[in-house]
Amino acid sequence: MSSPSYLDAQGLRSWFLTHDHKRIAVLYIITVTFFFFAGGLAASLIRIELVTPEGDLLTADGYNRAFTLHGVIMVWFFLIPSIPSVFGNFLVPIMIGARDMAFPRLNLLSWYLLLGGGLFTLLALLLGGVDTGWTFYTPLSTMFSNGHVVAVICGVFIAGFSSILTGINIIATVHTLRAPGMTWMRLPLFIWSMYATSVILVLATPVLAITLLLVAAEHLFNIGVFDPNLGGDPLLFQHLFWFYSHPAVYIMILPAMGVVSELITAAAHKRIFGYEFVAWSSVAIAIIGFLVWGHHMFVAGQSMYASLVFSLLSFLVAIPSAIKAYNWSATLYKSDLTLHAPFLFALTFIGLFIIGGVTGLFLALLAADLHAHDTYFVVAHFHYIMVGAAVAGYFGALHFWWPKITGRLYSALWGKITAVLIFCGFNLTFFPQFLLGYLGMPRRYHSYAPDLQFLNVMSSAGASILALAYVLPFFYLLASLRWGERAPMNPWEAAGLEWRVPSPPPAHNFQSPVTVDFEAYDYTEQARRDPL
Amino acid sequence: MSERFTRLWPEQASTYAAQVDWLVIGFTAMMVLFVVPVFVALWVFIWRYRRGRPANRDRRPQGNLSIEVAWIVLPFIGSLIVFGFSAWLFMNARTPPSDALEIQVTARQWMWKFQHPGGQREINTLHVPARRPVKLTMISEDAIHSLFLPALRIKQDVLPGRYTMLWFQAERSGSYEAFCAEYCGTDHAAMLARLVVLEPAHYQRWLENNGTQADLVEQGQVLYRQHGCGRCHDQGLAPSLAGIGQRTVTFTDGSQATADAAYLRESILLPNKRLVAGYAPTMPSYRNLLDEEALQRLLAYLQSLPASGTEDNP
User: Fold this and answer.
1) Euclidean distance between CA atoms A307 and A294, whole angstroms
2) Inter-chain contact A131–B41, Cβ cutoff 8 Å?
3) B142 vs A367: CB contact, 8 Å cut-off?
4) Residue B157: which H helix or E strand, with range?
């Protein structure tokens, strides 16, 4: 226990030139928190504008720039890097019994790339923003946009390399650095989900990068790829974009699912129900997730038969998600359950994820999608998944591993209050949007019919609760750094290698090389929880 | 708009709309059936097995294959049934009857333009008869738009450079909202239209009151003459256009295509992209001479041409 913690080294150099996966994770926490608040600010503008049916707070162009900024920042600079880069970095080596990631320098580089991409995007913002939506649909983005399309594309392009490098690093680490005895079927489920996520990161991100380059080429040099007036095909862009962006949704949600598997078992003090099913369902999601992009294009002018196939495949991809939800519930059977804050975040995740997943099936249903497509129904659906569930997963992870990362305990009561506020605020914000969408309110409208105001006001009221709930942890978690109690090695009495090293862990994680001779989530023998 | 405080369910203007609503309600019921057990189980287990409460925790299950198979297979079969019904509805919504009234739609930033077969033109309002199938052939002059008719539960993106189709049969007369659903730039939220469904007799009167000198075919014939198309096409220097709407054409590379609206539009704008076998590439592009609406008129004329006895390109 006498070895110094990874946080002991002092000075800027010790942070900005670090190769320690744990310190890089801390750099990521700070970075994504900044972008989360930047994107959240734009969301607040949107919800305040929509309190009244008239477009009165923002101009039409101002509103278009606000939702574009919100989407771009949240998707590429918060949601995608959040869990993989923060907790993937911090936990993957410790959970598999390794001293660091396979490529520590590459790891640091990927943080600089995310920061660089973010600064580029920020630059575009200061220059006046973009009005294409985060989807950059052509030929709007290439021929008719008067915003800084190329600068934003540059930002996203650079950040994409951060994703790719992180993905490569995690795949290599899981393959080569597992401790002796740490077989694949002994890996914590968080590792399975990080592995599946990394495969998507590595395979899908290059497609986005190429697509964005083509958009920039058409915008700058009039090279006809997507604009029919130049001989291009506008639907080609949508195929390429969704070939990345649908799997990208799984980049956001799979890591959160991995987190929830950890939180549920730690609260239940019991092995997960159906380990193999939960593990392989992550891989199934990663694979089938690549085959459903066409369900974003049912009304786009895609062939009717293609739409039929994509609809069927979209039902298939729901199965592995359902497997996880059923197994999480079954895990609580005969458990020894502690209702701590991280568990409440896991419950919030499950509730919001189920609503988001089921409403996704309505959109996979062809005839229902013809009506609901491009309305607030879609907005509500993907926010349940990408915000409600994924951010609940991120906050759950933050509350679960905070004592390990910082060595401090935060106020348990405030943690629980936040989890409940997020659940209530989120549903109040986004449930009315399902009704708005079915009533026919299209998305990306800054003015709407007066008899839709009641539901919009409800939504904005919920958003203010949600904003409060998302800001709260910033204060009590920071306060814990100064006034929090020192965290013990294993505050949750959880199984897993990370709970058998000190909080915070020493610079090289383990005093001596680890050998694994036990299964994942082994709660049967107390001896298994000895310090390593 | 009415003075209602708030709307709770969208208007139904067609039988199809009612079917979609039943699909949605039925699927909601099925999903409740699959989801409620999860929530109930969660709460029961949380209550029964919370730490400190005495409960039987012996012989904890690690997993159970038959349970896993059950909760994989049952929801999937249920979903497949709904998928089937939805696919049937979708295929109906994508297959217009052959006797449909054809209306041409041109979208641009940020307005909707409509042309009736009788030559009547409207902007941001579309009058159609009740209880008769209506087929919209749509094209955009700039970015992608999407015509969304909530009361009919349908929408279709409107693309530049390519015709897309939307059809419906409204049962109830009335005035309904129409939106642009695909984000298209600054005034996207102002790209609104009204769909006015009239009783057939009223529709007839509306057509007469808004009648023009010439119907769409005649307007197209004027364009045909103005642009001198006949100087080649009627003199044997270029392929004859008799019966072109019903024909298959053969190209220099041996491939064939049906001379549909998409092909005719392409051969006017990009005449040398696919060359009809036996002819030299002499036709100039009319891209800068004809806008999308004029093209729709010209195509209406071309597609109306009867087949003649002498076909040089069977």
Assistant:
1) 7
2) no
3) no
4) strand B154-158
Residue type, A132: T
Nearest to B72 among A131, A234, A323 (CB): A323
Nearest CA in chain B to A235: B159
Backbone angles phi, psi at A461, to 5 degrees: -65, -45
Report d(CA A339, CA A337) in Å as an integer: 6
ipTM: 0.91
DSSP secondary structure, B64-106, as one string: -HHHHHHHHHHHHHHHHHHHHHHHHHHHHHT---TTPEEEEEE
Torsion of CA B149, B150, B155, B158, to 10 degrees: 40
Domains defined for chain A, CATH in brackets: 15-507+517-529 (1.20.210.10)
CA-to-CA distance for A250 and A194, rounded, in angstroms? Answer: 11
Mean pLDDT of B54-82: 87
CB A385 within 8 A of CB A361: no
> What pLDDT does residue B314 have?
36
How does residue B1 score in pLDDT terms, banded at 50, 70 and 90?
very low
Helix, strand, coil shares, percent, chain A, to 5 = 70, 0, 25
pTM: 0.93
**Record: contact A137-B64, CB cut-off 8 A:** no
Which residue of A316, A370, A423 is the best one to mutate when testing the B interface, meaning the one whose CB has the most B CBs within 10 A?
A370
Q: A133, B146: Cβ pair inside 8 Å?
A: no
pLDDT digits (tens, 9 = 90+) for B102-148: 999 999 999 999 999 999 999 999 999 999 999 999 999 999 999 99
Taking the alpha carbons of A114, A118, A121, A127 in that order, is the dihedral positive or negative?
negative
The H-or-E segment that residue B139 falls in is: strand B134-140
- The reply to whether B251 touches chain A by the CB within 8 Å rule is no
Instruction: Tell me the nearest-neighbour CA distance from B192 into chain A, angstroms.
Output: 11
**Other residues' Cβ atoms within 10 Å of the Cβ of residue A129:** 20
Mutate to test the interface with B, among A137, A241, A285, A366 (most CBs of B within 10 A): A366
CB neighbour class for A54 (10 Å; exposed up to 12, middle 13-18, buried from 19): exposed
For residue A268, list chain B residues with Cβ-Cβ distance below 8 A.
49
Closest to A234 (Cβ–Cβ): which among B72, B93, B144? B144
Which residues are CB-contacts of B36 (< 8 A; sequence separation ≥ 6)? Answer: none
Terminal C-alpha separation, chain A:
10
B26 in reach of chain A (CB within 8 A): no
B41 reaches A (C-beta below 8 A):
yes
User: Out of 3.90.1030.10, 1.10.760.10, 1.25.40.10, 3.40.50.1970, which CATH number does the structure's domain B216-304 have?
Assistant: 1.10.760.10
Residue-wise pLDDT for A8-28, tens only, equals 988 999 999 999 999 999 999
In this predicted structure, what is the pLDDT of residue A526?
A: 57
| Residue B123 DSSP SS3 | strand
Cβ-based neighbour number of residue A437 at 10 Å = 25
State the DSSP H helix or E strand holding residue B230, giving kind and residue range, or none if neither: helix B230-233
Residues from chain B that touch A274, judged by Cβ atoms under 8 A, are: 62-64, 68
d(CA A284, CA A192): 11
Residue B143 Cα, gap to closest chain A Cα (Å)? 5
Helices (H) and strands (E) counted in chain A, each on its own, are 17, 0
Residues of B in contact with A319 (CB under 8 A): 72, 75-76
In the numeric block, the tokens 């997020």 are attached to: A422
Q: B35 touching A, CB under 8 A?
A: yes
Asked if B8's CB is within 8 angstroms of A332's CB, the reply is: no
> Is B57 in Cβ contact with A439 (below 8 Å)?
no
Query: Which residue reads 């639907």 in tokens?
Result: A235
Residues B101-209: name the CATH superfamily. Cupredoxins -  blue copper proteins (2.60.40.420)
